[in-house]
Structure formats: structure tokens, C-alpha cells
Amino acid sequence: MAKAKTKKKRVPIILITNDDGVTAPGIRALVEAVKGLGKVVVVAPDKPQSGMGHAITIGHPLRMQKVNVFEGIEAYSCSGTPVDCVKLAVDKVIHRKPDICLSGINHGANHSINVIYSGTMSAALEASIEGIPSIGFSLLDLSIDADFTAATKFARVLVEHVLKSKQEEKHLCLNVNIPKGDEKLIKGIKICSQAYAKYEEEFDERKDPHGRRYYWLTGEFVNFDKGKDTDVWALKNNYVSVVPVQFDLTNYELKKKLETNWTF
Amino acid sequence: MAKAKTKKKRVPIILITNDDGVTAPGIRALVEAVKGLGKVVVVAPDKPQSGMGHAITIGHPLRMQKVNVFEGIEAYSCSGTPVDCVKLAVDKVIHRKPDICLSGINHGANHSINVIYSGTMSAALEASIEGIPSIGFSLLDLSIDADFTAATKFARVLVEHVLKSKQEEKHLCLNVNIPKGDEKLIKGIKICSQAYAKYEEEFDERKDPHGRRYYWLTGEFVNFDKGKDTDVWALKNNYVSVVPVQFDLTNYELKKKLETNWTF
Q1: Would the pLDDT of A47 be above 50?
Q2: What are the φ/ψ torsions at residue B232 (nearest 5 degrees)?
Q3: Cα gap B182→B179, rounded to integer Å
Q4: A:B CB pairs within 8 Å
Q5: What is the pTM of this model?
Q6: With 0-12 CB in 10 A as exposed, 13-18 as middle and 19+ as buried, what is B165?
Q7: Rounded-to-integer distance, Cα B157 and Cα A107, Å
Q8: Is residue A216 within 8 angstroms of chain B, CB to CB?
Q9: B62 and A203: CB-CB below 8 Å?
Q10: ipTM
Q11: Are strands A39-45 and B213-223 parallel, antiparallel or unpaired?
Q12: pLDDT for B92-122, tens place per residue?
């Protein structure tokens, strides 16, 4: 009995990545947020990788090098995408599955359909495919000088919660968005569904100095979802939104319909 | 009445893209497959974009140019990802939503978890986000010399079916995989769910001529799913697999659990 009591508690390994790159203020805020909760290892892109979605690098090899960016924290920059970073970290840095994988804190929102385009969330989803509980954090502020005070606080609360809870969910993945502004105005945390809200895109057509056309992606964000349990609703009403996310894309409702109605 | 009878039937517009690039044999097979079913417009990447997932290009502008690759077919090559191609086609080429968007035929499987990494399927998913019915086609043969005979035949059957059916599904998206080999051996079409099957990855670590490390992504495909309604099962048993796919990643089951169990 005495032996069991003095048994050293295993320190959880916390893998951190992002899509804004290893030098972004947001990832620094996330590292600060979880200090003391476990052994932190950072493997993050060496350059911005926003909008990379679930891209992986298969046509050329990856580079990875140790960087001294966070005091007292083992950190690496990687030439690949956020998803590459997670794969490489597990196989070549940690040599086992970490206890949790965190991604962010992203400079800018990843609610609604953005979950699909987001490198931040794709890294988290990748971890969950591997059976590593994961959380992606995003702050509704694109600025490089964004104030991460509230985001940091809520990130710590949620990471502690997941680390402490008995992990019954084999593939837990949470998409967390934090409203911009004074933390005192935030009303709390809301479990939400992904809103059907998206960018109505238009390309800005220009001509280069040689007269050849090129196109910039631009767009206006439109919320088509009237639901009150969505992430967009929660954020608009000053809640932190938490959407549990899955990688099984099967539309089971439609599957049933097609099984009944389609004959060849 | 006579007037109504002679009313000209609107020709459906069929947008075709892929992730292997505009010159790949697979996209040529798809163009051939749907000839006569509508007006075909091709907007496809100017280079291979496999594994690009749902990546979009936001950090730099896109180029697009008319190419003469398919006889009598309006076609463009684009410097962006498969998802970029769909967005650009709608806004700058067709100037409206096409009646259907087809992607492929991919050289290689996109069943199970591959749906998430696949540029082919991300292009189809992107169309469905926009409310355009879409189908992604993949042949279980990576070879550049793959025989697309069976794939072409089944692609035509499915496209005809979707074009003819009353579109009640606002966001129809199908992930279609076709077995390799003699079409006579294919038993038919099966509506499936996405198998939990994935690559167990390992990076091949090498040193360049200057002694610096680099890493190649490699992996072995493992099926963890014992289900008999999955795409992996169907393909193994020589069926064409059709998985209806959705872009709402919310894990509703877990959402319910967290709403009940999580208090802050």
C-alpha cells in the first residue's frame, strides 16, 4: 500500500502546434497557458500555414529543426503543414502518443465552416484520428498584437478539464473559439454545434505589370444558420464556443435515404 | 400547350476538376464519361495537388489560363488547390453555380480516412458547401497507365442518376471509389459508411549530401473497422463504394454528453 501511495505520478506530455507558425504570439500564449500541467513539446510550422486545411506533404521531404523560442521548452520548427507537424512529432520527437495535443491559439476565428479550411483545427483533428485527445483554440482577433489574456485563461481551464476527466472518448477533438475583447464580458463556455455560416467568395481580379490577370481570394462572411446552439450564436452572445468535432464525414441520414431509394 | 412542349430544355452545366492536374489521364476519362450529359467546363490544377485536403490559397494570388487539352471542351488550368479551382470556376468562369461538380477520376483510392486528406474529395465537398451537388471519383489504381474503363462506366451511371433525380438534398456530396481490375468482376454499387481505416505512419529519415536530416512520409494502410457496410469492405468485395459525405463535423453524440457532464 505504502508503495502504491508513493508511486510517482506520470507527467502528461502536451504536444503543441499551430498554423500561424512557431514564432506567432498565439502559440506563445498557449505554451504559457498550460505551464505546469505537464511536459510541453512544441512542433510547429516554420512559416504561416493558414488555410492549409488537412494538407499533408507527400511530393517532397520535410525538414525539422530544434529552435530556442520558448524558455525551457523543447521546440521544433517544421517545413510542413500543421498536420505534418503532428505526424512528425509523434513519430520522430515524442516517439509515442502524447497525452493531449493542443493547436493554436489561432489569430482569427475558426468557427462554423472554417473548421474545414483551418490548419489549426486540422492539426487537432489529425491527433484525434490517432486517438490523441485534442483541442484547437482560436481567438476572434486576426491582429498580430491581439490580447490573448482571456483566451489563455479559458485554454487552461479546458486543458485541465480534459486532462483530469476520464478519457472515455477515444477520439475527443474540440474546436474552441474565444470572443475578442475584455475577458470580464465573457459569459462562460457553451457546448455548440457547427453553424452553417460561410464566406460568400469573390475573387479580386487584377493585372500584373505585364498585363497578365491574377486573382485574390476575398469574401464576406454570411451566417445562414438561425440556430441558437451554434458556435456563431454563442460567440455573438459573448460565450466561448466549444464544438466537439469528428472525422467521420459519413452523412448517415442521406445514407439511409439512398439505400432505400437508389436502385441501379 | 404546344409552346410548353417545344420549350428548349436547359442544358446542365457540369464542372469538372481533380487533384492530379489537368493533364492527368483520370480527368480525361471523366470528361469522356459524361460526354453528352451537359455542357462540360474543366477548371483543374496546373500541377499535381494530391494530399492537399481542403487547402485554399490566401497568402498569394492565383493564376488561371485557358488550355486546349480536351477536344471541344472549355478548359482552364489554375495555379491553386482543387478547392481554389471550384471557387474560381464558379466566380470567374461559369459566373453561376454549375448543375453538378465532378472531381477525379483520382489515380488511387480515397476511401476511409483518405476523404480528409484528398484534394479530389475536398473539391467535391467545397462544391456541396456552395449547394452544388457533387461527386468525387477515385480508382483503386495509382498507376499513370491505369485502366479507367470500369470507372468511366460507373461514373456515367452515377452522374446520370444524380442529374435525373429530383435534388432534394441541398448539399449532396458522394465519395465514389471503384475497384481496380476487370469491370466484369465488379458486383455492383454499394451505399457505404466511411471505414475507420488509416495509415500507420512512419517517417523515413535520411541525410542529404550536406549531412542534414530530412524526412519522407511513408505508411502502411490498416483497417481497424470490422463493419460490413463500410467502403473498405465494399471495395474488398468488389463493389463500387458510394459514401454520402457531409461538411458538418459536429459530433452530436459527444455534444449531448458534454452538455450533460461538463460544468465549469
Answers
A1: yes
A2: -65, -45
A3: 9
A4: 209
A5: 0.94
A6: middle
A7: 46
A8: yes
A9: yes
A10: 0.93
A11: unpaired
A12: 999 999 999 999 999 999 999 999 999 999 9
Examine residue B105 and say whether the peptide bond preceding it is cis (omega within 30 degrees of 0): yes
A138-152, A157-171, A194-208: segment of lowest average pLDDT: A157-171
Q: Which cell is A86 given? A: 503532428
Please answer yes or no on whether A122 and B53 come within 8 Å at the CB atom: yes
Supply A40's cell numbers: 510541453
With contact defined as beta carbons under 8 Å apart, do A86 and A10 qualify? Answer: no
pLDDT in tens, B181-211: 999 999 999 999 999 999 998 999 999 999 9
Cis peptide, bond prior to residue A105, ω within 30 of zero: yes
| Chain A contact for B220 (CB, 8 A cutoff) | no
Which residue ranges form the domains of chain A, and what is each CATH number? 11-195+227-261 (3.40.1210.10)
pLDDT in tens, B62-95: 999 999 999 999 999 999 999 999 999 999 999 9
**Do B139 and B181 contact (CB within 8 A), yes or no?**
no
Digit-coded pLDDT (tens) for A81-114? 999 999 999 999 999 999 999 999 999 999 999 9
Nearest chain A residue to B56, by CA: A51
The 3-state secondary structure of chain A, one letter per residue: CHHHHHCCCCCCEEEEECCCCCCCHHHHHHHHHCCCCCEEEEEEECCCCCCCCCCCCCCCCECEEECCCCCCCEEEEECCCHHHHHHHHHHHHHCCCCCEEEEEEEECCCCCCHHHHCHHHHHHHHHHHCCCCEEEEEECCCCCCCCCHHHHHHHHHHHHHHHHCCCCCCCCEEEEEECCCCHHHCCEEEECECCCEEEEEEEEEEECCCCCEEEEEEEEEEECCCCCCEHHHHHHCCEEEEEEECCCCECHHHHHHHHHHCCC
Residue in the block written with cell 508503495: A3
- For residue B19, which amino acid is it? D
Nearest CB among B81, B175, B189 relative to A264 is that of B189
Task: Compute φ and ψ for B235, nearest 5 degrees.
Answer: -65, -40
Cell numbers representing residue B148 in the block: 479507367
